Amino acid sequence: MSETLTEILTEAIEDEYKARATYRRVLEEFGDVRPFSNIVEAEQRHINALLVLFTEYGLRVPEDNWPDRVETPATLLAACQEGVAAEIGNATMYDRLLAASSDYPDIQSVLRNLQRASQENHLPAFQRCVERENRQPK
How far is CA 107 from each of CA 49, 56, 78, rounded to the nearest angstrom? Predict the structure, then answer.
């Protein structure tokens, strides 16, 4: 088994673990707020899709230690801004991982789907969140 394949899938699932932990932290701090309440569920689906690949390729699944590593944003606006930055970074990461996984069409299919969800759904939702929070009276 290719070490590169392990690295690709590990980086992807670590990024999804981090996002899920961060969005859960936002929900704990600010309550059941959108888009975090919807996107945290999507992050779980992304993790589940990656877990299937770990199983199919017989790879060890990295432990999720992100809940102890993420910090709570100071405000909901800051949380939304962090969401925008995270989703932009996510797209860059998936571009790199897609280039590195060209020998694995099944993995590329999953990575493309995750990237598409991030760019077409999560990023615009966080951008709307920033706009909404910027309109709130100070």
Answer: 10, 10, 33
Q: How many CB atoms lie within 10 A of CB 63?
A: 7
Residue 61 has pLDDT above 90, yes or no: yes
Residue 38 is inside which H or E element, if any?
A: helix 36-56
What single-letter amino acid sits at 57? Answer: Y
Cα dihedral across residues 44, 45, 46, 49: positive or negative: positive
**Rounded mean pLDDT of 101-109?**
94
pLDDT band at 3 (very low <50, low <70, confident <90, very high): low
This prediction has a pTM of 0.92
Prior bond to 35 cis, omega within 30? yes
Q: Which helix (H) or strand (E) is 104 found in, with range?
A: none
